[in-house]
Specification:
207 residues, alpha+beta, Glutathione S-transferase Yfyf (Class Pi), Chain A, domain 2, 4-stranded mixed beta sheet, globular
């Protein structure tokens, strides 16, 4: 299998963390792919009409996208503990957490693109809305941090951890840890996992 990949994409990172956690990393070859909101990459569109990464290229099922679907598929290919729990309550909790983590990432990507608008005139209304959504999400995650720490590691943990790490990576001037001590403590433990260390965002030039 091949993964259309970029070293700085947080959604790609979700997949690569799962690959390390499940022992599948040697079964997937990373293929460098550059995606942006302003320019369509025909090599990506050939496999995903939305022009987004990650895309997993398989021999039997063709291209699979997006990160949520790729992770669900890969989690069925190993014999270890599943990152998508079988228990119904744990499963829906993991999916809800994944939705929140992915949603925060979506907002952060929109915020970053708005700030970097070519005309140099980001919308104050949009930015204020993005800020409110991030603040509300961090408040919910702060309240849920003890439960995150007490529950088995899942796809929800991966998504939330990737979102917080992306905050550090792209918005390093923001001190999101202030006012969120429980969440900061949980994230510190997340960052020490071997799978997370192995997938630290790198240089865009690295293939």
């Amino acid at each position: 299998m091949e993964l259309l990949w970029s070293p700085r994409s947080p959604f790609v990172r979700k997949v690569t963390i799962l690959l390390h956690e499940t022992g599948l990393v040697d079964r997937v070859r990373n293929v460098r792919a550059v995606a942006s909101m302003s320019k369509v990459n025909p090599e990506i569109v050939r496999h995903n009409p939305l022009g987004k990464i990650p895309v997993l290229l398989t021999d039997d099922l063709g291209p699979i996208f997006d990160s949520t679907v790729i992770c669900a598929y890969l989690d069925r290919l190993h014999d270890g503990p599943r990152l998508h729990p079988s228990d119904a309550r744990d499963w829906i909790t993991a999916l809800r957490r994944q939705a929140l983590g992915d949603g925060v990432l979506d907002v952060l990507l929109l915020m970053r693109n708005e700030v970097a608008r070519p005309d140099g005139a980001p919308s104050p209304t949009y930015l204020a809305g993005f800020e409110q959504k991030v603040a509300a999400s961090l408040a919910v995650l702060e309240a849920e941090a003890p439960a995150l720490g007490d529950s088995a590691f899942s796809i929800g943990h991966i998504a939330i951890g990737c979102a917080l790490s992306y905050l550090d990576f792209r918005f390093s001037d923001r001190d999101w840890r202030r006012g969120h001590p429980a969440l900061a403590s949980w994230h510190a433990e997340f960052e020490f996992r071997p799978s997370v260390i192995a997938t630290t965002p790198g240089d865009e030039s690295v293939a």
